[in-house]
Amino acid sequence: SDLLNPIINNDAFWATPPGSLKGFLNDTILQDKVMVKYTYDHFTQLKARGVLTANSTAKDIAGALMGAHLGGVGGVTSYFKSGTNSSDANGTSISRYVQLGRSTQR
Description:
106 residues; mainly alpha; 5 helices; 60% helix
């Protein structure tokens, strides 16, 4: 967002490593670690909200996590609990991302 651009582009705000946006973009291992943490945080929050349970299948988990990637934990929680199917600025809906996520699992 426009609010974050000045921070993201200012090297003084970056920890070492990577030390800068360029450093982060050049470090694919760090990018993967950040994505794993981001996804695990969503997983934990979705469990706490009852969207994911001990009975959730791999398809359920993949769908919910993919939906949360697009619409955030709150958006995907609203989708599963009340049927609210919001979309991003490109018109991609949470239901579409949930479907895509579910399709990655058997």
